[in-house]
Amino acid sequence: MEQHASVISLLVVVTVAFVTPILLHRLRLNYIPVVVAEIIMGLVIGKSGFNVVHEDMWLSTLSTLGFIFLMFLSGLEIDFTAFRGSKKPITLPNGKKEPNTFMVSGIIFVGIFIFSLGLSYLFVIAGFIENAFLMTLIISTISLGVVVPTLKEAHLMKTNIGQIILLVAVVADLVTMILMAVFVSIYDPGQGNTWLLLILFAAGVVLYFVGKVFKNRPLLESLSKGTVQIGTRAVFMLIIVLVGLSETVGAENILGAFLAGVLVSLLSPNQELVHKLDSFGYGFLIPIFFVMIGVELDIWSLFADKKLLLLIPLLLLGLLLSKVVPVYLLKIWYDTKTVLASGFLLTSTLSLVIAAATIGERMEVITPEMSGTLILVAVITSIFTPIAFKKLFPLEVAAAPKVRIAFLGANQVTLPVSRELKSGLYEPILYHTKTEKSDKMVSNSLFDIVEIFDYSLETIEKNKIFQNEIIVISTGHDQTNADLAIKAKELGVSRVIARIESPELEQSLREKDIEVFSSFMSTKTLLRALIETPSVINILTNQETSLHEIRMQNEQFDGMTLRRFPFTGDVIFVRIFRGKDSIVPHGDTELLLNDRLIVTGSKEYVDELKRELEF
User: Fold this and answer.
1) Strand order through the sheet with 596-601
2) Can you tell me the distance from the alpha carbon of 321 to that of 161, in angstroms, rounded to the nearest whole number?
3) 82-97, pLDDT tens digit by residue?
4) Rounded to whole angstroms, how far apart are CA atoms 167 and 423?
5) Tens digit of pLDDT for each residue in 340-359?
6) Is 607 in contact with 425 (CB distance < 8 Å)?
7) Exposed, middle or buried by CB within 10 Å (0-12, 13-18, 19+), for 367?
8) How far apart are CA 389 and CA 168, in angstroms?
9) What angle do CA 135, 140, 142 make, to 5 degrees?
């Protein structure tokens, strides 16, 4: 009978998790994060509502696994490329140079942490809580799960202000999770010592280097398909190993899961694997966890305690002040609306507050009612902060950023291409060694060329050329082009295009994911195509009907069929490349993240489509 009851409760929870996003879509409540809506639905069916779900072994196990997987995906969500130095600063509309993202983000987080510590002692003095350490973690944490989608939707991920907001949230996530492990080791007498955490991090370092060695082995690539899916199996093994080790050294299991996510992120997994992990986590385990948070939350008991009722607005105010005051540093470069909007978005808290509240309740540092209050406040921030951000943030700042392209070498190929690419979407920069006076006069009358002393790595690093999104290397020497291309790829440049005339060098560079072109091959291919398929050449060379490639990176359209796609007006989808597959598109074809779309249409419309899908 108990077995039957547990299956019924699980059925109710899974059904609610399935129905929730449909209701959000039908009611046009897209400004509410799905995870927040799941908690609210849990309130309806749980202790605060109809009380039709009762926690048992089934739900407890799946909810715990959901929590572990949520922490894993939180670690996986951290983009460590954000820790690179800033790109070459550009001038803002107010005439000031953009700030260094890493330096400013670090200062802001330190300010947030110090301010949170001060507010925590005020809450202790007021008698709301006894442990200032735990309260500091709760106030200083920031939800990456709210910040990242909001920035993507506003097309701000590649802007300077977007990178600052993202980096503050990333640092807050990392530091808070580590300090939470330290908190447990200090205040829970049944757990291990703080120094034992070093064993966990040492194991993480070892596993990282093991993963780096075996990641690109041909055997593993061949085992990543069909029913084997060795990459997915390896990820789950990594999670279980680090979760088990985390519990063994006396830390919380979520620290091990978070560390597993960080390691996988550092190993730069292919996007197909990330998509599978996201689908499994957010499609099954994580919704169960969030619905069960709502089920176990008894709001009426919170309202019965006047002290806890008073804590809700005070804590909301504290969370807001702890972010807005340090973020006000950005007023040096940005207007008041931008600064306030950034502070509001950074106020959002969710996963780590739930983690801290759950741990604090288990350790009896806080009461179940206090834990419920903290979770309720986190839910409230996740609802109103994205809305406030969208209302406050200036539209002109949110305009799509230009893609910066650096051309190394000014010649008959790069000069006209760089000139044609000057549009609202691209910002090409030509770099060339110092030329004779006559050549300089001819070139500079038509083109903007940045003169550099030579093509050495020292000169290139000094001019921060490798900090552009796309690098086109077309000097007069194959070996120089190859060496610079390899170095650019090692430094993390997303796209590197090199001019190589040697077939031997060409093959070796292609294996390193470097795109290669040559004058000889291009001319030969063009002549043959002109003879065999003149109409195709007309498509390729006509500015209005040429083919364009767009990478689908907007999560809003992930899984949407072309039939429902709202931007098909003046454009035709010719082909979709998904991994190694080539797909002929039709109305029921679904768009997936990181698809490469080959389209044709007017240049203005294609540029608009690129802004919508790539940023």
Assistant:
1) 547-551, 596-601, 571-578, 581-583
2) 20
3) 555 545 556 666 667 7
4) 29
5) 999 999 999 888 898 888 88
6) yes
7) middle
8) 16
9) 125
